[in-house]
Fold:
Amino acid sequence: MTRSLRKRRDSMKQKVLVTREIPEAGVDELQKHLDVYVNPEDTPMTKDDIIHAITDTQGLVCMLADRIDKEILDAAKNLKVIANYAVGYDNIDIETAAHKNIYVTNTPGVLTEATADLTWALILSISRRIIEADHYLRTGRFRGWEPMLLLGTDVHGKTLGIIGLGRIGQAVALRARGFDMKVLYYEPRRLPEKIEQSCHAKYCSLSELLKTSDFVSIHVPLDKSTFHLIGTPELDSMKKTAYLINVSRGAVIDEMALVKGLKNRVIAGCGLDVYEREPNVEQELLAMKNTVLLPHVGSASHATRDRMALIAAQNIIAVLIRKEEPPNWVHKDIQI
Ligand code: GLV
Ligand code: GLV
Structure:
């Protein structure tokens, strides 16, 4: 094939925009079939950049920090599929996408274990004061074993309340067995007995869970029904000795109410991986010792991110090359 002919054939390939560098595994897979443009900057694309880049693009791989709203979708005249590089997809206007016959997909399953692991990192860090203890040593204050040094709270034998017993919630519950914990869960609807038994989790109301748990961990998607699910009344109903853990979406908690609750000592502390207005974090949380604050790294392991990249690529390829329904279509229930 002559160079110009090959070039012409390449230019006939459908286009995919990837808004941020993702692991090579995904980009390589896409490049086998498609003309791929990856944002070369180490920063999110601005809305204008996305609008500019998306007009002649058939596929979009986007990040949870990209707000894919009606304005962007209106500009995306040729778009057929959006692969969100995340399991949560509250950043995408899925109704508008469905009306425009654009498939939206996510990356479920592959990040379940990594996110459950990180939940436990938060549970253990906040209760045993791991971050404080590390800081204590690094700042030269360690003078040897002390009977009253950095005493924390036990995890084993306590009650763990899981709000949202989906895949991630279940994986968190399974890990609790090793700590001999009692596990409660809340869902709007009780789950099949088989799941309850395999997780050793007992169903209860949200108010009962909040009232009796020593650790409350949130694993729900963000939508209208879960926005500010935890606010002042909910925090007030928790034990004064309890810890709140959130690796789902920041806006499930009213962050101002949490700041107030922590200041008033209505709960003992919190471990957060997500925030209501990312990347902004309520300043007062930063000054508190009884908080562990991570920069949204729930799924951040090499192997997990590789698998997420591959899944995103496979969803794009299913629609654009195989002309099939994508395997991880999130809005099947909305008429497309
Ligand atoms: C991360 O928050 C995700 O939804 O994948
Ligand atoms: C994600 O994998 C979930 O549904 O919990």
